[in-house]
Amino acid sequence: MKLKIHSHNFAENILSQEPFKQTYDELLNICKQAPIPIYKNKSSNQKKLDVIQQIIDSYLNLRLKSDGWNHDEHFPVNDKEYLTIDYKKNVSTGEQDYNIHLEVEFGNVASTYRNYFKLQFLNYKKSNNIGVLILPTESLSKRIDSGIATYEKTVGELESANGIFNFPILVIGLDYNEDDELPLNTGELTLKELQSKSNIKHDMFVRDLIKNIRA
């Protein structure tokens, strides 16, 4: 996968230095190794939609957790409600702890606004040091579905609201790369199985995929 990077409030400069450098390098490597799962005629009505984002989502989930990111972290808003963050990783210098919160977004634009709120809330509560957003670029999103959030739109919104988001946020755009295409039409799994993250065949497929990438 090709990547596009946007650094808001010096996020990339910070992550490129200790004690964050190893975590940042690992994160970029995970994203670069992400496959582009292709299933021709995924949609009978929209022929251009041929990328199965659920495979990418599951791949990122398993790789991030194996690299020490905590999944679905809860943070109380009040006595009855809480926010759920996709991933959190604690980085320590030995003297001070830092939190990195990460959101993976393949949903619609409204989902991105929830991500902004969550990161801003955590920053307000002094629980967040750096935010990371992972989204498809516009070119890749057009092959996944219509109306989903994109890297380009997110970057534009952060730049427009520069005075509001006054903490470091790194935006990673997952971009199309022909060399990373993974044709799935001829495989043993059906389209429904490939799209169902709760299906055991889906899970086993992604785990085998990761093993082959690491081999």
CATH topology: Restriction Endonuclease
Structural domain count: 1
Distance between the termini: 18 Å
CATH class: Alpha Beta
Order of helical and strand elements: EHHEHEEEHEHHEEHH
Number of helices: 8
Helix content: 25-40%
Quaternary structure classification:
single chain
Second CATH tier, the architecture: 3-Layer(aba) Sandwich
Uncertain residue segments = none
Structural class of the helices, strands and pairings? alpha/beta
What percent of residues are in strands?
A: 15-25%
GO molecular function, one term: magnesium ion binding
Protein name: Restriction endonuclease
Characterise this structure.
With about 220 residues, this protein is α/β, with parallel strands linked by helices. It has a single domain, classed as Restriction Endonuclease (3-Layer(aba) Sandwich). The chain is built from eight helices and eight strands. It has helices at about 10-15, 20-30, 55-65, 110-125, 140, 150-160, 190-195, 200-215; strands at about 1-10, 35-40, 70-75, 80-90, 95-105, 130-135, 170-175, 180-185. The chain has a six-stranded mixed beta sheet, sandwiched between helices. α3 crosses α8 (about 200-215). It starts with a strand and ends with a helix.
